[in-house]
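I would love for you to help me understand the pair of lines that follows before we discuss the fold together.
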Amino acid sequence: MKTKKGLKNIYVTEDFPKEVLAKRKALQEKLKEEMKKGKIVFLKYDKLVVKENESTKEKRKRETSSSPHSSDLQLKNQQTSMPFKVNRTNAFDLMRNRSNSLSNISSNKQQ
């Protein structure tokens, strides 16, 4: 039912019992009135659902922030000036030294 708009030349509706159809028809007038007031309104089975129209775009914006004071910046700069990790080991110290086997083979051929 959600993709019924994509179907061309095909008429698709929901099947409701006669009682529900009669109730929905009666609620159509209230639905139009509430829509004119600017509210979000829709029919769900045999009930009218009314929601207040809230402008959500304004709430999604970030609040403007003022620039920090210079004393706060100095404290942050002092904290970040510390080295990241003092006791970090050099990765090359842990690696095995390269063997000289290739240099030995080439020197044997020259003799």
Remarks:
- DSSP finds five helices and two strands in the chain.
- Residues 4-54 form one domain.
